Amino acid sequence: MAAKRSGARGKRSRRTGEPVQQPSGEPPLSRERIVATAIDLLDAQGLDALTMRRLADRLGSGVMSLYWHVDSKEDVFDLALDSVLDYRGPPEMVEPENWRAEIVHMLEDWRAGMLRHPWSASLLPRRALGPSILGRLERMSKILSSAGVADADVNAAIWSLWNYVMGATVTRASFDLSDDERAEAQQRLASERYPTIERSRLLLDSDWDGAFRKGLDFLLDGLSPG
Hints:
Number of domains: 2
CATH architecture of the largest domain: Orthogonal Bundle
CATH class of the largest domain: Mainly Alpha
Distance between the termini: 90 Å
Number of helices: 11
Helix content: 55-70%
Structural class: mainly alpha
CATH superfamily of the largest domain: Tetracycline Repressor, domain 2
């Protein structure tokens, strides 16, 4: 008696129709696993290192298997960026009526996320805005409107805060002078025509977090309803 032929067909790539590799000993592929692995690769090697081949190698799968879950490398970039910018809301100790505290928490969380994943700050301005960043902008708009910021001023307020966070993050991530180099540069100020920044010891000030928070307070003071 002839063996019964199975009616089940092996999975095939939705793009090429070729059989999808199913490596043994590896967890099943999923969009979540692909995105998490892409983030690890971006953190370790930067934007230029992400290719579908390298991603597949890290996942222990065939390249075409990835296309069951993502559309392209650009899709992976969008998903990775949206993942690292996800915002789960303020901690419980932030009172709902304390609009400044929630804005501060949201923006400090945003900056911290980009510093943990430095590639995200350079990628964000070049990508379509995903659900996570749009959710932040929507939440900020609601908070500012509820705090009394005029409708005509909300957009300017949002972009001012955006520019501040992005600028502060890029500056912190790219400012890589050593302590010795900073000290040497500060010493040179004494013999040159920069008495004000020499007196304030600008080049030795390494309190990045404190400077970010104080600058944010300056901005929020200007947004506070009179």
